[in-house]
Write a structure and sequence with these properties.
Length: 183
């Protein structure tokens, strides 16, 4: 069995690592806890009328729980791993009753292009459970984080919310503050 952690932290930022990770794991893995552990927080900030985007969804049940427990009727989950998107579609989208729950193979760095081209429409809520931490682990992590924020920003509708679950390491908080507070 493959270990949970990659050989280097930079691997968290590589598509190949995530393909191997999800090919070797069949069970749901909830980075930073599951929906129930954060339900008070989600209930407070996510509304039934939201169009929600879950970035870097992995094999987490977060999108499903937002769809089912919070009754959000439009939840799009994206991830760069084709393997996991295929698995999640099989697991959650095979029944017609979940028409508003979708899984798309997409890189977070292409959201802006997808919005501009009309392939995607703005969301009132974007959720990130560990994706920023993974992206902020490579050699170009500062510019990658800024690029990710720009893409998230383009995905948000007016008054939209970006909800981040992170380890909040100093460099992560610094990037968040630099982009969203200092502009």
């Amino acid at each position: 069995m493959e270990t949970l952690l990659p050989k280097t932290t930079e691997d968290f930022n590589k598509r190949e690592y995530w393909e191997r990770f999800f090919q070797s794991r069949q069970n749901t893995f909830e980075w930073y806890g599951d929906f129930l552990q954060h339900s008070r927080f989600f209930t407070k900030y996510i509304r039934k009328a939201d169009r929600a985007l879950v970035v870097g969804c992995g094999n987490s049940d977060l999108g499903l729980m937002i769809f089912e427990k919070l009754n959000v009727g439009d939840v799009t989950n994206i991830d760069i791993s084709e393997t996991i998107i295929r698995q999640m579609r099989q697991k959650h989208c095979s029944r017609k009753i979940r028409a508003g729950l979708t899984y798309e193979c997409m890189d977070v760095f292409t959201i802006e292009d997808n919005i501009k081209s009309g392939r995607m429409h703005p969301f009132s809520c974007v959720l990130d459970k560990g994706t920023l931490d993974a992206i902020h682990s490579g050699d170009n992590s500062d510019s990658d984080a800024t690029n990710m924020f720009r893409n998230i920003d383009s995905a948000l509708s007016l008054m939209g919310r970006y909800i981040i679950l992170t380890l909040a390491q100093e460099h992560i908080v610094h990037s968040i503050c630099n982009y969203f507070i200092q502009g």
